[in-house]
């Protein structure tokens, strides 16, 4: 069985999943509008979380939507 760390290592720490589900290439140095609701300002970003060696999604306007690529996959 493939574990979490094997998946993360083969998907650039989860960055590939974010690009796939967001529908655009993620730029770690710029914020973007939330894909979950009619966001009026750019308040979301993807960042690298060293403790888990993975990328995470964060929305400054709505903290209900934080998480790594495994959380992100459960939204749909």
Describe this entry's structure for a reader.
The chain is an alpha+beta fold and 76 residues long. It has three helices and three strands. It has helices spanning 4-10, 15-22, 69-73, and strands spanning 44-49, 54-59, 67-68. It has a three-stranded antiparallel β-sheet with strand order 1-2-3. A hairpin with a 7-residue loop joins β2 and β3. The mean pLDDT is 85.
- Biggest sheet features: 3 strands, antiparallel
Residue stretches low in confidence (pLDDT < 50, at least 5 long) are none
The total count of helices amounts to 3
User: What is the alpha-carbon Rg in Å?
Assistant: 12 Å
What topology, given as strand order, has the largest sheet?
A: 1-2-3
Q: Got a strand count? A: 3
Shape: elongated
Q: Element order, helices and strands?
A: HHEEEH
Q: Could you tell me how far the N terminus lies from the C terminus, measured between alpha carbons in angstroms?
A: 24 Å
Q: What's the overall average pLDDT, rounded? A: 85
Structural class: alpha+beta
Helix content: 25-40%
Strand percent estimate? 15-25%
Summarize the structure.
This protein is an alpha+beta fold and about 80 residues long. It has three helices and three strands.
